[in-house]
Amino acid sequence: MPGVEFDKKKDTKRKGIEPTQVKSIKLMTALEKGSDNDGTGKNFNQDGVVFGKTYKFIVNGYTNLAPQDKKKIKWKFKYHSISKNKWIEHNSTVTGEEYNLYLNEKDICGRMIHVMAYINDDESEGYLKVWHHNRFRFFDRKLVEKQAEERAKEPWKIKQASSSLCGMAALYNALIKKDPNRYLKIVKDLLRTGECTLDSYTIAPHPAALEMYDVHPKRTQDFRSMGMFEVDWLVLATTRSKESTKNLIYKGKESGKLDMLKAVNWPDMLTRMGKQVGGFSNSTAHGLSYTSINDKKTVIGGRVHDYFSDSDFKELLTIDSLHKKGRHILMMIDADMIYNKASYSSLVDVFNDSHWVVYEGDLTFYDSDQNITVDLDKVATVCFKIFTWGRNPQSGEYISLAGKIEPDKDVQAMITKPGLNSKSFKSNYYGYIEMY
User: Fold this and answer.
1) pLDDT of residue 400
2) Which of 14, 24, 126, 393 is 20 to 30 A (C-alpha) from 97?
3) Is the preceding omega at residue 180 within 30 degrees of 0, hence cis?
4) 416 CB-near residues (< 8 Å, 6+ apart)
């Protein structure tokens, strides 16, 4: 039987050619909305497929009559891989008029999928392009990457706001200073594929917190109530979720003390992450053992120690010396220090008020007459700069949620003469992590 040259229906002497071809295919499964990725962070009208779901495609038209043998209809799909910088093709073993595509390859996230059904020619027959949403599909890619670029240049703009993610903020502040490209990779990989692998460590939401992928930046019940920027929540919350324990799963939302407890950044955990996430060759904790912290917070023992000892001031001198050598110092304090308030209570404060900041130098001791002194026995107040809460340690300004740079009030006592009184520093200082 002579073949037919498709639409023209012109006789041809070629044998074995099916006298029809697939004209069109149709996606039967409903698409889902996601960010338009237009840089505004306000539009969520983009239709697309999502990771982890199955989508049904059918042939819904031929150039001639349907083939007698439907098994001659083959399926394939392709996409351009960012990670491999080449086109990846997948030829299905399924034949016939229906094809179910299960999307479980993270590399396809944030890419256009080209689906083809064909009898003779995969490039000229049934063809359909479908957008595959980023794993965090409601996050505007252009906006998040813009925010990330700003932080890569000025890491003080990382803002934990009212969340309990101070340890993660301090860690990433140090990471950016060491390797801003590592930070940008984490942002891009997390947003698109939902995870980022650094050597043998993978940042991703805990397996029991996968609903984080559906968090919507415009829903106040999600993370907006904490006053965080998109990129900061994406990176800080996801990194902390990875470290969740079985009974304390952090899901990036904080509505009470239990949620805050889930986000606590324990010293040993943060020290280990200095290498795994930060990429530092060395990460060492000083004075942050359970015993040391407990001794610092006992009402009587802490007061007695601070009255007779200048060890905390000596340690601050060590910190300043290490900072001048280029070391990155994460200090564990009680937040009361920032408000120049002495605090002796109990170990419970570690859960409620402990706070991580990054030491930024300019250490100066003053005596009771507000003269600079090097005699630790005469120290009445002390000044030094820190990074915390989206504050610029140099200018004392901070970045508001609207993106504006506004005057800072909270950390002025630490950086402006006469500075913190000695009790405020000693009673609220625990120890530090040295990274380099």
Assistant:
1) 80
2) 14
3) no
4) 383, 396
